[in-house]
Amino acid sequence: MKDLKSKNIFSSFLYERKNLSISYIIKKFGSRIIDVLITFPLSIIKENLIKKLELKYIDSLVTLDIKVVDYIKKYNRRSPFIVICEDMYKQRIHILYFNLYENQIKNFLKKGNTYRVSGKLEVSKSSFQIIHPLNIISNESINKYENIYPEYDLSRKRINKKIFRNVINNNIKSFSNNNFPQEWIPRRVIEKYDWYSFRDSLLNIHKPNKVFDKNELNTFRTRIAFDELLSSYLTFYELKKKFNFYKNDISIKDFSCSKEIIKRLQFRLTIDQIKALNQVQSDLKQKFRMYRLIQGDVGSGKTIIALLASVDVIKNGFQVVLMAPTEILARQHYEYFCEHLPEFANQICLLTGKTKSKKNIYELILNDEIKILIGTHSVYNNEVKFKNLGLIIIDEQHKFGVKQRIKLLDKSRFCHTLIMSATPIPRSLSFVIYGEISISDIKTKPKGRKKVITTIINIEKIESLIEGIKRKIQLNEQIFWILPTINNEELNSKETVTTRFQYLNKVFNNKVSMIHGKMKKEELNKTMNDFKNKKISILVSTTLIEVGVNIPSATLIVIERAEMFGLAQLHQLRGRIVRGNLQGNCVLIFSDNLSEGTLQRLSILKSSENGFKIAEKDLEIRGAGDFFGTNQSGIPVWRFFNPSFDKKLIIESKEVSEDLVRNYNQNKEKIDFLREVFYRNENFMNYFSV
Question: Which of 7, 468, 525, 587 is the most buried (most CB within 10 A)?
């Protein structure tokens, strides 16, 4: 790629001087010219450039040329500093500034000079005025003025809009003059969607010559979205070659151990569980390494499949590592494995941040005395070295960062990989999220599980809810109460975990406790154990209990401010009360002034318990960015591709990628170019690192 990197679009972008905005542009977008250009704007803005001040422009945004005539000083601390100006027809207009130093204002609006000013035009005391102009361009820089320009989403990125636009303008010529490979998308596809070239699509986006309507702008977006998908498939192709290149010496031939364990289970495996187990065992026999996702609804029984696969792997002389996103879930897995595999209990180990005698555990792992290691992020510690690792199990992969997964997988490039997820992914998206992965769906629930009754109520009905909770407690049943925030400092919260705990504690005395992510691990574990042992009846929590917490006697979950959560996340939370055979209830509490759209979204959850259908609906409503809730750094961040609207592009781009790799040598320049644009042609070790 040296020849490509010598071309302008892959070199660092030019900027006038280094400042905080430039640093954040590099951090959020990247340092190359192409990195800032593969950004889709919110809209195209056209400024209203007027020549003469007229009353018809009042209360609208205008741009006009003015000349600074004089100044009126502030007569008290609260009064504005006024800059007296004239338009080109000698009409007076005042520019007002509050809370700025006089010398500062005089420096960028100098007496006698001409400027182009943008802002909201108002009238006060029979005079035109603009308070705090949005933009000021000096006469010397008038050639840089843009009447039409894109508006980018820079909210919460700490990037100045003007500086970002300057970066685009300073580097767009280098992009325009770049030598691009010949068109890589077949003409039939180009004509079908009426697309421009890669170059012209980005030029139209960033240097528009008119205000494009939504359809026109979407045409440019979908062209680059197709290229983005294409680069993803081409990267997966490279990984597939590498993935299948290594010889697989982990051959699992003896499955007698799992058969014996199935016989002594106190429940029967469902049809889907049996099917998933057969698929896993079939993979383990193959010459190539297994790369399989088991996805199933909450409480559908994925963990038993992982356990049965694990016992066969260790029976054949290999080790297993299971990585869970939270200490609570890791400990639960450990207890589950020990319960069902008592003969291997002394060879199963839990490794978390608070585990003592770690060096001794590292030695036991290296000497193959620990066969199954279960833990959190601690299992990818550099000091953890396996003698003969055969199977990696990752529970809720999307909860982990990319680097964490790479560290774990690089411990054994040759072993099998099994992923478990209780957030079902629509099949149309599985490839673009996981790569060419085999999928086992577990949809049938264990026998005896009752349907959860879901109710939606207004916060005003909380007193009736409290009476219902009292009846639950009398029956020795337990309750989860969930809120999105810990305290009032977050998101201008009304009710929080802290305030709701204080309220409930007054009503139920010492039967209430709370947990959240900012608590010390010792305190958190003690609280969870107290709840598990029924020392407390109500647990107030954040979404910390979202994944895997197993309390069969918990029959009610109250989710307050339900409008703040996504459907898939609400469904995950609801799954905390489908662990036993008692009737479960889920109460969604919403605040006042709930929109019709949000109420409709919550109604989907009320009417369906099918996690796969809910996932599809959630994807349509919220898009991929929020599909897994907040801060899920493991999911690809798409810049142009929108899973909610671009499903039709998924199959077509895959077909084009297959055409390109079919004549790999002939198309190598195009393939390398696309991978360099979107993935920097990184040498990924595995699918998980994409």
Answer: 587
